[in-house]
Every structure is written in C-alpha cells, then in structure tokens.
Amino acid sequence: MAVARRSGIGVVEQRPARRAVLVAVQDRDGAATSPSLAELRRLADACALAVAGVVVQTRARPDPDTYLSAGKVAELAVTAAVVRADVVIAEDGLSARQTRALEERTGVPVVDRATLILDIFDRHGHGSGVAPLCGVDRMPAVVLAGYTNAGKSALLNRLSGAAVPSTDVLFATLDPVVRPVRANGHAFALADTVGIVRHLPYRRVPAFRSTLDALRHADLTLHVVDAAAPDALDQISAVHDVRREIGAGHLPELLVLNKVDIARPAGLTALRRTFPDPVAVSARTGAGVPALLRAVVTRLRQVELGAVP
Ligand SMILES: Nc1nc2c(ncn2[C@@H]2O[C@H](COP(=O)(O)OP(=O)(O)OP(=O)(O)O)[C@@H](O)[C@H]2O)c(=O)[nH]1
Ligand SMILES: [Mg+2]
User: Fold this and answer.
1) Residue ranges, CATH 3.40.50.300, the chain
2) Strand 2-5 with 11-14, pairing
3) Residue in 158, 226, 284 to alter for ligand 1 test, most ligand atoms within 8 A of Cβ
4) What distance in angstroms lies between residue 34's CA and the mean position of ligand 1's atoms?
5) Residue 127's pLDDT band (boundaries 50, 70, 90)?
6) 210: alpha, beta or left? (left if phi > 0; alpha if psi -120 to 50)
7) In DSSP terms, which residues pair with 189 in a beta bridge?
8) For residue 275, how far is its CA from the centre of ligand 2 (angstroms)?
C-alpha cells in the first residue's frame, strides 16, 4: 500500500477506499497520548474507511456551536477538500447543531464516534439514522459477551493484539471497544462488552446500552465463560436469560470456555456434557485460539457474512 505524507494534514493513504478525516478536541494531556484517537483510527479501519487526514484542536472543551474554533473549522474544510474526504468523523459526541455547522462549512457528511460504532453494528445501515458508512464493505460484527470477569477483554486483546485493560475487577470494562481482527483470509469487527451479572435491570442502566445494542445486532456472539468458576453453569444461564430478555436469544452464539489453563478437568467435563460444541481456550496462554478463530470463520460463513474481500 502506498503511503504519502503531507505536512499539516497527517498521513494520506493511497488506496481505493472511501476516505475519512478524523477530528478531535483534546486538552494538553490528551494531545500527548491520544489513545482514543488511535481507537478512532481502528474503528474507521473496521468500517473499511481510509484515514486520509487528522485535524486536532488543543483546547479545554469543544465549542458548543461549531465543535472547533473558527480557524480550526477552516483548516478542517481545507483538509477535507485536499484529501477529497467522503466523511468527517469526530472523536466526541456531536450535537445536531455542531454536526450541521461542520457539514455546512466542509461540505462533507459529518458523523461522531458513536454513530460510527452503531454503523459497524448495523447490518442494513438504518439504525444510526445516517447513510451507511460501512455499506457493502461492512465487516461481520462479532461480539464478546459473558458474565463479568469471564475474560472477555483478555480474549479481545489476545485475538486483536489490542491493549484493553483486563483486570480482576468486576465491570473492568465500562467503555466497550471494537477492534478489527483478520484471520484465515477473513476479517471481522470484534467488540468487547460490559459484563453481565444476575438480577440487574439492564434496560435502565445507561452503561449497558451499547452492550445491549451490540448483542442485538451481532452477526455472531462469542459467549465467553470462566470455565474455572465453580458456578460457571449458573453464569451461563444468567447470560442466556439476559439475551432472551432483550430479544437476542435466537441469534447465533458460540460458547467459548475460557481459562482452561486453570479450570478443573471435572468442571470442564460437566460444561462439555451440557453444551455440545464449545471451543476451549485460554486468553492467558493462547491455547485454543487458532481453533477459536477457525470456528468463528466457519460460523460466520454459516450466517453468510464470512466472506470478506
Ligand atoms: N488464568 C487465566 N486468567 C484469565 C484468563 N483470561 C482472563 N483471565 C483473568 O481473569 C480476569 C478477568 O479478565 P477480564 O478480561 O478483565 O474479564 P472481563 O470478562 O472483560 O471482565 P469485565 O469487563 O469486568 O466484565 C483478569 O484477572 C484476567 O487476567 C485465562 O485464560 N486464564
Ligand atoms: Mg472487560
């Protein structure tokens, strides 16, 4: 892939994909590290958009009317024109007024990070209320779901090489992420989600909203189970209850027995007896991961979305 650099407008990748310009407002600390801008790049990648330019403004908070200052809006408009951008993607959530202001001044559709994530999960491009960005290039959406502490984030890291915090704390993940994964000639978008626990009114907890959306729109759910937990069977039931409750019970699910490095053989046998076709892995050691990727690709083919050019 040819890569060219032009001063002031970031990296221009020359390939036949739709082009996006990323735009962000960051305080001084954020500008130095910018993990969420790196994530926005990966999201654009998951959506088969080429990042053709990046415009960052250093200021305490976004302008309530125009998101950026007048000078930066002008820079964004020039950048979008120079790279012939198909879309501008903002790191922050945008109000309708900010979106309109940026679209008027750049002449290019403007979306925010949340819309991009919804688009990745929206098979038909209707849910987010905008024209689909991912369109025919959309990758299948695979969701890591499961009881809290099962190892979802650890598995996302293992499968995608990403650095998502994975710690022995309940609800370690409260800001779920999506990463592109390429395996065996196929590509899919893999999403982490917030862990499920028993007896929670999910619909009323805002932090769960994106998890519930992801579960409802997934092409395939990887139901991650802590196979070392003494109550693993109950945890599986709790997750199945939630899936049913939100109307996602009938969608394709692959059961992934995680932590096989520390699970007791008797516990594994009991799980295998109850669930016929699980894949056993260890996110920690990597055992079983190639078989898991093969199983994901096979299941995606079965749901007729696996073949990504
Ligand atoms: N031994 C072992 N530990 C694991 C494995 N996978 C994850 N863990 C540990 O289990 C704990 C929970 O892992 P996470 O990846 O944070 O679990 P999660 O499902 O994302 O948890 P929440 O986001 O809180 O719902 C961490 O201490 C991990 O290091 C594994 O395969 N083997
Ligand atoms: Mg997590």
Assistant:
1) 141-302
2) antiparallel
3) 284
4) 25
5) very low
6) alpha
7) 141, 180
8) 24
Domain at 141-302: CATH code:
3.40.50.300
**pLDDT, averaged across the chain:** 79
Q: Is the pLDDT of residue 134 over 60?
A: no
pLDDT of 128 > 90? The answer is: no
Q: Identify the nearest ligand to the CA of 261 by its number.
A: 1
Q: What is the pLDDT of residue 290?
A: 92
pLDDT at 33: 47
CATH 3.40.50.11060 boundaries in the chain = 2-137
pLDDT at residue 10, as a whole number: 30
User: How many Cα atoms sit within 13 Å of 75 on the Cβ side?
Assistant: 17
User: Residue holding tokens 């693993």?
Assistant: 232
CA-nearest of 81, 90, 76, 87 to 17 is 87
The pTM assigned to this predicted structure is 0.64
Indicate which ligand has the atom closest to the C-alpha of 145: 1
Q: Give the residue, out of 147, 149, 226, 281, with the most ligand 1 atoms within 8 A of its beta carbon, to mutate for a pocket test.
A: 149
Ligand nearest to the CA of 146: 1
Domain 2-137, CATH: 3.40.50.11060
Instruction: Give 27 Cα–ligand 1 centroid separation in angstroms.
Output: 32
- Render pLDDT for 191-234 as a digit per residue (tens, 0 to 9): 888 898 887 777 777 777 777 877 887 889 999 999 999 999 99
CA of 168 to the centre of ligand 1 (A): 6
**Is the sign of the CA dihedral 234, 206, 89, 5 positive or negative?**
negative
The verdict on the CB of residue 173 being under 6 Å from ligand 1 is: yes
